[in-house]
Each structure stands twice: as C-alpha cells, then as structure tokens.
Amino acid sequence: MKTESIKALRRPGASGVDDEHDPEGSSTAFERAHVATLLARAREHLEELDRALERLEQGRYGQCEGCGGAIPPERLEIRPAATTCVRCASDPRRPPRPA
C-alpha cells in the first residue's frame, strides 16, 4: 500500500497542484524536489543494506574491502552496511565512493 503511494508521488502532476498559477508554487516545487531527494537517499541506503546481506550470505560481512581486516563490531552496529574499517575509510588515498 505504501509502495503504491510512493509510486503515485513519482508521476508528473500527481499532486494535482498547478505550480505555475499557485502563489506558493515555488515552495511546492521545492518540497517535491526535497521529497525526491529523500526517496533517492532511502533507495540508496536500501541497496547498501542489500549488498551487506549478500556479503553476509557469502561469509564476507564484517571484512574490510580495503585491507581485508575485520571491521569492528561497534562500527557495524552504527553502520551495518559499512564495507571498510575506520582506518581505510579515513584514508585520503582511497577513491571516493560512487554517488
């Protein structure tokens, strides 16, 4: 049911608001853009969690992709989708994560 509501939000003109003739049109457009950004971030986070589940199934969960060492349980508790230990994550020579 919630998925259907989210899909409805993605359709152009789904809000029924005519931004061009609405005195608060710019606010409505901003809010739509903001919601779209939040949805994109949520999707990205779910994809990261899916990849973490795949690593768990493959026996690689909690193993740093940078150095191969163990990712501390405290880091995994805070960031369950973490792929690197703190040392590798803070290494300035490490390439940035894809957006």
Automatic annotation (TrEMBL):
Q: Positions of the zinc fingers (dksA C4-type)? A: 64-88
A Pfam family: zf-dskA_traR
The yes or no answer to whether the keyword Zinc is present is: yes
Q: Where is this region: Disordered?
A: 1-27
Q: Which residues form a coiled coil?
A: none
Q: Where is the Zinc finger DksA/TraR C4-type domain?
A: 59-91
Keywords attached to this entry: Metal-binding, Zinc, Zinc-finger
Alphabetical list of PANTHER family matching this protein = GENERAL STRESS PROTEIN 16O (PTHR33823:SF4), RNA POLYMERASE-BINDING TRANSCRIPTION FACTOR DKSA-RELATED (PTHR33823)
Please identify the protein, giving its name as recorded. Answer: Zinc finger DksA/TraR C4-type domain-containing protein
| Species whose genome carries this gene | Streptomyces spororaveus
